[in-house]
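Here's what a typical entry looks like (Cytochrome c-type biogenesis protein):
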Amino acid sequence: MLTIFQISNANAQQHETRQHYSAEQKKALGFEIARELRCPMAINQNLFDSQSQIASELKGQIFFMLEEGQSKNDIINFLVERYGEKIRYMPSLNNNTLFLWLFPLTLVIFSFIGIFLLMRKNN
């Protein structure tokens, strides 16, 4: 009896968190998501621009999930779980990608320090 209550309560909570989008909102949000994600087949193309079969299927999946009322984050997280972090154009900040985010900044800082020290030494 308790298990049935827990399942029905979980289903009710799931329905409460669903988004209700207008047709225009679905279209705009679907295109926005498709522009933010990389096509698994086409090199350096987002889903929106790619004409590959997998890109068409993924765009359909995005719009299907929007129709179900899922949020942008839910859809992106689903696709990242399925295809890996490489599907994102902008990787999320975590332990695995920390180097990608910090190395360019560190390189710029050390370059400025090096230039400053060279200029100071020459004067």
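The chain has two domains: 2-92, 94-123.

More examples are in the samples folder.
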